[in-house]
Design goal:
By secondary structure, this protein is an alpha/beta fold. It folds into 2 domains: 207 residues, P-loop containing nucleotide triphosphate hydrolases (Rossmann fold, 3-Layer(aba) Sandwich); 61 residues, Protein-tyrosine phosphatase receptor IA-2 ectodomain (Alpha-Beta Plaits). It is 32% helix and 31% strand. The strands form 3 sheets. The chain has a 6-stranded mixed beta sheet, sandwiched between helices. It has a 4-stranded antiparallel beta sheet with strand order 2-1-4-5, with helices on one face. Strands 12-13-11-14 form a 4-stranded antiparallel beta sheet, with helices on both faces. Pfam families: ABC_tran (PF00005).
C-alpha cells in the first residue's frame, strides 16, 4: 500500500478532530477523502506529510511511518493545496529554475509540455497570477519531478469549471503509475476521475469503497406496495434512511442487487406493485450517510 492509516486519532486539547480513522490507498489508485469543511481532511493530510503527528494510531506512506519520513521519501511526494504559499516575488520561470536542481529525476520535457498546455506567463510574478494560474504553477512543480504520490488538498475549490476540468484532465494525462490522494468538499466535481472514495464526517470515516462498487450497489429505492406499509421492528441492515407514507416505501439500499430486490422487499412488506431504483451521485450518498450518523448520535 502507498498509504495506510490504522485507527488514527488526533486531539487538540480536549477536542477530538479525528477518531478511529482507518483507510488504505493502493498504488495507482486515485483516492478521494471527501467531506464538509471541518470534517478533518486537511488534518489527515498534515499528518500524512508529518506536519502534524497523530495522537494515537499508525500512519505509513510508501512503507515508512509518517513520523519518520526522510528527504528521500519526501522527494517522491508531490503536494498541491488550495492555500499553498508560493514565493510571490518570483517569476514563474525563475521559480521552476529554482526547484529543478533539487530533483534528480526532474523531467524537463514534461515541464515544457505542461507549461505549453497551461499557457503560463514565464516572466510574470506569481503574486500577479489568478488563483487558477497559481494552482497550475503548483501542479507543474509537483508533477515535473515524477513523484510516486501526488497529494491534492482542496486544489479545485473556487475555480471556474473550465479551469478545474482542464487541471483534472492534465493531472490524469500525466498520471502513468502515479497514486493520487485528493481531499475535497466539492463532491460532484471529482466523481468522474477518482477510483476510490472515503466519506469523512465529524472526524469519523463513515465508510470507504471503490467508485465501481458504489455505483453498482448504492441505490435510492422507492416502492409502491399493495397495502399500507407497516414499519418492521427491525429494518434490514442494508437499508438506510427508510421511510413510509401510506403504501409508499423509500430507502437507500447499500447492497443493491436488481434480481432479488422485489423478493427482498416482499419478504418484509408482502405484495409489491412497483419498484423504482435510481443511481445516486457522491453528494447524495454522502449526505444520506451523514444524516443517518447524526440521527444515530454519531
Amino acid at each position: 500500500m502507498i498509504i495506510e492509516a490504522r485507527n488514527i486519532e488526533k486531539r487538540f486539547g480536549g477536542y477530538k478532530a479525528l477518531s478511529g480513522l482507518s483507510f488504505s490507498v493502493a498504488q495507482g489508485n486515485v483516492y478521494a477523502l471527501i467531506g464538509a469543511n471541518g470534517a478533518g481532511k486537511t488534518t489527515t493530510i498534515k499528518m500524512m506529510m508529518n506536519i502534524m503527528t497523530p495522537t494515537r494510531g499508525d500512519l505509513t506512506l510508501m512503507g515508512a511511518p509518517s513520523r519518520k519520513l526522510t528527504s528521500h521519501h519526501l522527494s517522491q511526494i508531490g503536494y498541491v493545496s488550495e492555500s499553498q504559499v508560493l514565493p510571490g516575488q518570483m517569476a514563474v520561470g525563475a521559480y521552476l529554475d529554482y526547484l529543478r536542481p533539487f530533483y534528480s529525476n526532474w523531467d524537463e520535457a514534461l515541464e515544457k509540455t505542461m507549461l505549453r498546455r497551461f499557457k503560463l506567463p514565464m516572466e510574470r510574478k506569481i503574486r500577479a497570477l489568478s488563483q487558477g494560474m497559481r494552482i497550475k504553477v503548483a501542479l507543474v512543480a509537483a508533477l515535473a519531478f515524477k513523484p510516486k504520490l501526488l497529494v491534492l488538498d482542496e486544489p479545485f475549490s473556487g475555480l471556474d469549471p473550465l479551469v478545474r476540468d482542464d487541471l483534472i484532465e492534465s493531472v490524469l494525462s500525466h498520471a502513468e503509475d502515479l497514486t493520487i490522494f485528493i481531499s475535497s468538499h466539492e463532491l460532484n466535481e471529482i466523481q468522474g476521475f477518482v477510483s476510490n472514495v472515503g466519506f469523512l464526517n465529524q472526524g469519523r470515516l463513515l465508510f470507504e469503497n471503490s467508485i465501481e462498487v458504489l455505483n453498482a450497489r448504492v441505490r435510492k429505492i422507492r416502492v409502491t406496495l399493495q397495502s399500507t406499509a407497516r414499519p418492521p421492528d427491525t429494518w434490514p441492515g442494508a437499508w438506510i434512511d427508510p421511510g413510509t407514507s401510506g403504501n409508499v416505501l423509500s430507502f437507500v439500499h447499500t447492497a443493491f442487487a436488481e434480481d432479488r430486490l422485489a423478493s427482498e422487499i416482499a419478504a418484509v412488506f408482502g405484495g409489491v406493485k412497483f419498484v423504482q431504483a435510481e443511481p445516486m451521485d457522491l453528494r447524495s450518498i454522502f449526505t444520506t450517510f451523514a444524516r443517518v450518523q447524526q440521527m444515530n448520535g454519531g
